[in-house]
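ARCHIVE CARD
CATEGORY: sequence design from structure
SOURCE FIELD: tokenized fold
FIELD CONTENT:
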């Protein structure tokens, strides 16, 4: 057995146990929703902690009543891509042995049984592929699978679908969404937790009256973890390593990255690497400049896809311009092209998640990109 190294800070992947902090209220609420069979929609910017939170709730939920199933559909490109992933996750996570999975396939998806192949090594983590096509099963049949499984295992099933915004990208998306909702809303022993990033897309799917998933579940916006909760978390991590950090410096770390969870952990880790005994203004600055360097390749790649006008638009926001986008003066000052171009440009930058709309106008979504643009 390889001993796991105890890394002080973790970022970029979902976190659990010792690396998961706070979220007491959110956990409680989500747990209640799961246990009471309510559909949940969870929205936040990327890397704020949705996946970590849902996985945490999966752990603490009353397992004698509830069976949770988690499926990430980030790489699903079409409706049937999704049905395969969906059915696989359901079959695998509602049975704890390969034999039972096989039984359930024969029970509920018998037309597939001849072509499903299992990894023959029974002891290792098994994998299988269903290869469902429209020839064998209609969408409605696959969408009904959770209800059949719930009745079979005698527990309520909560299906948690991560990166749900992907469905907005599929061919005939609206039509597919209609079908899903049509089947799911009648299920008595199944509820859904649908969550994802790209706020713009998620909000459109769930809050637009003309869209099939309108009011399917109450939209919850996951808020950043407050600084007051980061303070004991980060301080204890430093103490474990024989180092110390004053409250004011934790606050500074949180402020710099506007409490975006992943960046808080990444910056805290950078600062720790630059610290011999105690955190100072200087080690914070070092950590910060390391963070900007680490982000450079990604930002360059993201910005590469933008036109000059779109880049100028981001620069304008970074310069403190948040509204009055059709004023000729603003258009000239930042070289944004014509008035008629502006709303299309905004829509695209919103959709790509570069910017977000707040009460008083448009802002950059990524706090570190903002700092990076100032510097480079
Ligand atoms: N409750 C939490 N406590 C501490 N760090 C967290 C927490 N939630 C998220 N993070 C940080 O944010 C990163 C991204 O979390 P993740 O759950 O993958 O976010 P999302 O699913 O919203 O993109 C994690 O790697 C971790 O660094
Ligand atoms: Mg996630």
């Amino acid at each position: 057995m390889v001993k796991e190294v105890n890394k002080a800070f973790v970022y970029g992947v979902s976190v659990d146990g010792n690396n998961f902090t706070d979220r007491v209220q959110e956990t409680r609420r989500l747990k209640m929703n799961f246990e009471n069979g309510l559909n949940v929609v969870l929205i936040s910017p990327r890397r704020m902690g949705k996946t970590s939170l849902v996985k945490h709730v999966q752990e603490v939920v009353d397992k004698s009543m509830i069976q949770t199933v988690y499926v990430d559909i980030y790489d699903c490109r079409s409706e049937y891509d999704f049905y395969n992933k969906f059915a696989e996750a359901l079959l695998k996570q509602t049975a704890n042995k390969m034999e039972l999975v096989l039984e359930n396939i024969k029970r509920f998806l018998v037309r597939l049984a001849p072509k499903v192949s299992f990894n023959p090594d029974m002891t290792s983590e098994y994998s299988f592929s269903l290869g469902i096509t429209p020839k064998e099963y209609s969408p409605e049949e696959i969408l009904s699978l959770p209800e059949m499984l719930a009745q079979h295992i005698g527990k309520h099933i909560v299906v948690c679908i991560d990166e749900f915004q992907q469905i907005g990208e599929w061919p005939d998306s609206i039509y597919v969404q209609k079908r899903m909702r049509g089947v799911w809303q009648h299920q008595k022993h199944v509820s859904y937790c649908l969550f994802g990033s790209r706020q713009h897309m998620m909000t459109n799917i769930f809050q637009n009256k003309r869209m099939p998933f309108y009011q399917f579940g109450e939209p919850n916006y996951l808020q950043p973890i407050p600084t007051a909760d980061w303070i004991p978390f980060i301080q204890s991590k430093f103490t474990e390593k024989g180092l110390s950090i004053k409250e004011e410096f934790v606050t500074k770390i949180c402020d710099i990255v506007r409490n975006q969870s992943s960046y808080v952990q990444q910056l805290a880790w950078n600062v720790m690497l630059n610290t011999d005994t105690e955190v100072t203004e200087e080690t914070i600055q070092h950590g910060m400049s390391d963070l900007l360097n680490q982000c450079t390749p990604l930002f360059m790649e993201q910005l590469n896809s933008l036109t000059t006008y779109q880049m100028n638009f981001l620069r304008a926001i970074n310069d403190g311009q948040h509204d009055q986008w059709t004023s000729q003066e603003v258009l000239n000052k930042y070289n944004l092209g014509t008035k008629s171009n502006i709303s299309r440009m905004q829509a695209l930058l919103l959709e790509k998640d570069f910017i977000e709309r707040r009460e008083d106008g448009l802002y950059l979504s990524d706090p570190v990109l903002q700092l990076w643009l100032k510097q480079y």
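CARD ANNOTATION: Residues 50-51, 162 surround magnesium ion (ligand 2) (CB under 6 Å). The longest helix spans residues 281-304.
SHELF: design records, drawer C
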